[in-house]
Design a protein that fits this description.
103 residues, alpha+beta, three-stranded antiparallel beta sheet, binds L-tyrosinamide
């Protein structure tokens, strides 16, 4: 096809084929009751982060109210958020993870 002129802007044909899935952030929400060590243990078990990373994520949520834990495809993000929230609930804590689409 011609590339100049007044027609619709041409985009590479590959765009449709290479479209990547929308990604979702998993967000840790602070609360006043869940013990710090419990939050870190859940982060390690569900999100496979190191002790050090878990502690940093927990403290960021503790100080700022929320912290992005990781980014996944929608199904994985929702499953992990539910697993983390359920781990808190099972132990009697209001620990909460939410998901949010990336820009
Ligand atoms: N704020 C809690 C405390 O002082 C610890 C905590 C941190 C809880 C992060 C939840 O997402 C959270 N025991």
């Amino acid at each position: 096809r011609p590339t100049g002129g007044s027609g619709p802007a041409l985009r590479p044909k590959t765009r449709r084929k290479t479209q990547r899935p929308r990604l979702f952030k998993v967000i840790l929400v602070n609360d006043d009751f869940t013990p710090r060590d419990f939050v870190v243990a859940v982060l390690k078990a569900v999100f496979r982060v190191s002790e050090d990373q878990g502690r940093r994520i927990m403290m960021t949520a503790h100080r700022r109210g929320v912290c992005v834990v990781a980014v996944y495809t929608r199904d994985v993000a929702e499953t992990k958020a539910t697993e983390g929230t359920e781990a808190g609930r099972a132990a009697g804590y209001p620990l909460m993870f939410t998901t949010e689409p990336e820009e």
